[in-house]
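Checklist before submission:
- one chain only
- standard amino acids only
- sequence pasted in full

Submission:
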Amino acid sequence: MGLWDVVKDQFLDVIEYEDESNKLIVTKFRRESGNDELKQGSKVIVRESQCAVFLKGGQLADILMPGTYSLNTENFPVLTKLQAFPYLFVSPVIADLYFVSTRQFVDNQWETKNPIIKRDKGNRDDL
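Returned file contents:
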């Protein structure tokens, strides 16, 4: 990660997710640079047929329905990087954002690696 990536990560984000495949149920917000810190005041755009789950400090902070929101993460650009010096510049302020599809999945093929065996209660001969 170069100097420009470090500087670029200090700007506020406009976060949104659009599922091109229409098969994904849940996805976590991840930045291309690998620095997934959510900044104070970043905008979140939640589309129709989605909701977003906002976690702060490992606890559920909010469920965002379709619309535009500003995040309250207490993770301030530049200032948080300076406060993270004792932690090798990894912010101790943890916030996560998950996008959840609320649309109905029709004709979806659910598969498991191994078959699930379910015993029929009506057939008692093999017990």
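Reviewer check: Residues 49 and 104 are 9 Å apart (CA to CA).
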